[in-house]
Every structure is written in structure tokens, then in C-alpha cells.
Amino acid sequence: MSENLRNFTKALYGMDAVVQRVPAGAWDNDSPCVGWTARDVVAHQVGVLDGVTHMARGNEMIRPSPPADVSDPLAVWARGRDEVLEALDQPGALQHEGQYWFGPMSIDGLIGIVQWDPLTHTWDLGEATGVEAVLDESLAQLSYDRISSMRETLMAMKLIGEAVDVPAEAGIVSRYLGLVGRDPG
């Protein structure tokens, strides 16, 4: 297992820990993502996972597209999580090369970048639903370093918002969240 796959898997299971504890009545709560509910956050994340799944199976790049039916967010999440992990576990999947969302790279390189998305949306989902989201500090540091070097590109793609000022002495999780436009309070 590559380091990128370990980190991506850790980010997915961090989000899974929040998804599994969302109260049934909280799925339509507003999230920190403007215009999105908690249900929309899961739909977006599954769309990203479906895109990675498609590409990991040796297919051409596709844009993330949320599933049409998210009436059962737990089932939609479980399907997306399990399918991406199964696709990434296939022999040679991580070595597939292609033109992906952030340029030419391998699937291993892609998930090395994309792991920031479930990490961030774990926090968003927790904020929306009142479920405590504990973000892994090592993933936050890795994401902070990667996003810092790609910030302008990600802003242009409208994948992250304007940075929020966070005190320099704040922990890495708060600094990371501020970097991607979240106010960790």
C-alpha cells in the first residue's frame, strides 16, 4: 500500500466516522459550504469518490458528479466509499497514468492530492450536524503543505474559498481549515 493510499483511506474513514453518527433529522441542515446542506456535502464527496473510482479502473478523466438520489445518504456514502477502496485495491490501479483533475499524473499522485477533500468535508459535515469531527493532524499538515503550493489553482477552479485568518500559534488543523476558507472558530 502506498503512503498516498494510506492517507486517502485514513481521510475516508475519518469522514465515515462522522457520516455514521449524523442524526437522522440533521441531513438537511445547512453546512459551512454556501448553498449546501449536510446531504449535499455527502453527495459532493461521493461524486468525487465516483470520479476517482472511474479513473482508477483505467478510464478517462470525468468531472465529479454527485449522485442524483441521495434520499439515503448513509447508503450512498457506503457505496461510494466501498467502490473507491475496491477500485484502488486492484493490481496496477495506483499506477494508471492519465490527464486527471490536476494535470498529468498517476492515480497514486491524484489521491495524494485529493485526500484533502474528504478531510475538509469531514469538518463541514460535523459543523452542519453537530457531530464532533476529529481531523487527523498528520493529514491536516500534509493537506496544508499541498494546498499551500496549489492554492491559486484551486481558487481559480473554485474548489477552495478565500483564506480565513487564523492565529499563527493555532494548531495545524485550525491553520489548515483557515487556508481552505473555513473559520475554525
Report on this structure.
By secondary structure, the chain is mostly helical. The protein has one domain (3-179): dinb family like domain (Four Helix Bundle (Hemerythrin (Met), subunit A), Up-down Bundle), CATH 1.20.120. The chain is built from seven helices and two strands, in the order H-H-H-E-E-H-H-H-H. It has helices at 3-19, 38-56, 73-88, 107-114, 116-129, 137-156, 172-179, and strands at residues 97-100, 103-106. It has a two-stranded antiparallel ribbon. The chain starts with a helix and ends in a 6-residue tail after the last helix.
Keywords:
185 residues, mainly alpha, Four Helix Bundle (Hemerythrin (Met), subunit A), two-stranded antiparallel sheet, 7 helices
Helix and strand layout, with pairings?
Elements: H1 3-19, H2 38-56, H3 73-88, E1 97-100, E2 103-106, H4 107-114, H5 116-129, H6 137-156, H7 172-179
Antiparallel strand pairs: 1-2
Helix pairs in contact: 1-3, 1-4, 1-5, 2-3, 2-5, 6-7
